[in-house]
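quick q for whoever's on today - can somebody do inverse folding on this one?? i tried earlier but teh output was garbage lol. tokens:
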């Protein structure tokens, strides 16, 4: 891809692409990807042959150019570009413009942080997701904290499946508190797995999105993928495993301490949670909140904080999250919403297994 400089008085820049066969995938069906970029950045995009003209304010034009360049480079790497990747490229380009750092955008474009599974390749769609993926590759224990729809659980399952199929771990252990969200489901029929399965459905959905259904069933039967209710974790040492503890805001103090101390040799643990969705009985304190306070400065542990800007579901979800944040702020008596903590990682990688593999 090359860029023609603006002529005097010309408010636009002109991009020329050297591989016309990639343009249908770059532009999208009926130019849907271009329309998505126009709407997100407030620019105008017009294509003629292998030339694309970008018009708009200087900063917006530069961000649009960086977005299109990243997407085009992905296609040249043989990676997918769909609506999600377009939104991700826009987020990365906006952050690169704001921070003056192209590391995340370049990693997105080159596929350096792409997690490959049997069914699909998963790439980060926001700078915080990129930090989260790096943390899971570099650290033995990672906390993914933030609102629904930010990809905390999905990305954790993706990394776990990738490491399992690559032989880096022997099994995946999935655990989640069996706490209803404001309901009482009563007695559930069946054996232990039948009783716990409804609570783990989001993890199953992610597994089936990354592995063929027969492989998921086979690995569940062989124990390579294990469902481990919290109550049955005590006394175990989880070695050579990738452990995912989902919805950890609904663990008690003792449950969280017990879970964190299960980590064995050559094991990884990812703990996800949203402190605004605690469903514990009234008066019970969340073990996740305490763990964040206690372990924030412990070497080898990373804590990655997501916010509403990282929501990768329907854009309406982000607006819903912001509305509830505003309500929480009013109930606390704040003059304005505090929002969530900015994306960050705390803790540094220690020697040996804490270093990047």
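ok took a stab at it. sequence:
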């Amino acid at each position: 891809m090359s860029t023609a400089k603006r002529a005097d008085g010309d408010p636009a820049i002109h991009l020329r692409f050297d591989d016309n066969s990639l343009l249908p995938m770059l532009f999208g069906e009926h130019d849907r990807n271009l329309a998505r970029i126009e709407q997100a950045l407030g620019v105008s995009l017009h294509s003629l042959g292998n030339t694309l003209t970008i018009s708009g304010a200087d900063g917006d034009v530069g961000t649009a150019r960086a977005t299109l360049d990243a997407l085009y480079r992905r296609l040249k790497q043989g990676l997918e570009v769909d609506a999600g990747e377009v939104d991700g490229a826009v987020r990365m380009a906006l952050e690169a413009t704001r921070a003056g750092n192209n590391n995340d955008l370049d990693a997105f474009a080159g596929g350096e942080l792409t997690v490959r599974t049997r069914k699909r390749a998963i790439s980060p769609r926001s700078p915080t997701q990129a930090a989260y993926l790096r943390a899971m590759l570099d650290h033995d224990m990672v906390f993914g904290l933030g609102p629904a729809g930010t990809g905390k659980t999905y990305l954790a399952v993706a990394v776990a499946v990738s490491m399992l199929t690559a032989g880096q771990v022997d099994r995946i252990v999935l655990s989640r508190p069996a706490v209803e969200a404001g309901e009482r489901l009563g007695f559930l029929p069946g054996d232990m797995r039948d009783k716990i399965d409804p609570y783990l459905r989001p993890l199953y959905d992610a597994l089936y999105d990354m592995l063929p259904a027969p492989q998921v069933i086979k690995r569940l039967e062989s124990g390579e993928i294990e469902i481990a209710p919290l109550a049955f974790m005590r006394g175990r040492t989880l070695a050579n495993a990738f452990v995912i503890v989902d919805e950890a805001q609904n663990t008690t103090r003792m449950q969280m301490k017990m879970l964190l101390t299960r980590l064995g040799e050559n094991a990884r643990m990812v703990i996800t949670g949203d402190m605004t969705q605690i469903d514990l009985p009234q008066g019970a304190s969340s073990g996740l909140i305490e763990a964040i306070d206690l372990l924030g400065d412990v070497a080898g542990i990373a804590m990655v904080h997501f916010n509403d800007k990282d929501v990768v579901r329907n854009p309406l979800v982000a607006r819903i999250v912001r509305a509830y944040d505003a309500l929480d702020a009013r109930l606390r008596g704040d003059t304005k919403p505090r929002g969530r903590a900015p994306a960050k990682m705390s803790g540094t990688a220690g020697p040996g297994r804490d270093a990047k593999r």
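fwiw The two ends are 34 Å apart (CA to CA). also Residues 61 and 135 are 32 Å apart (CA to CA). so keep that in mind when u check it
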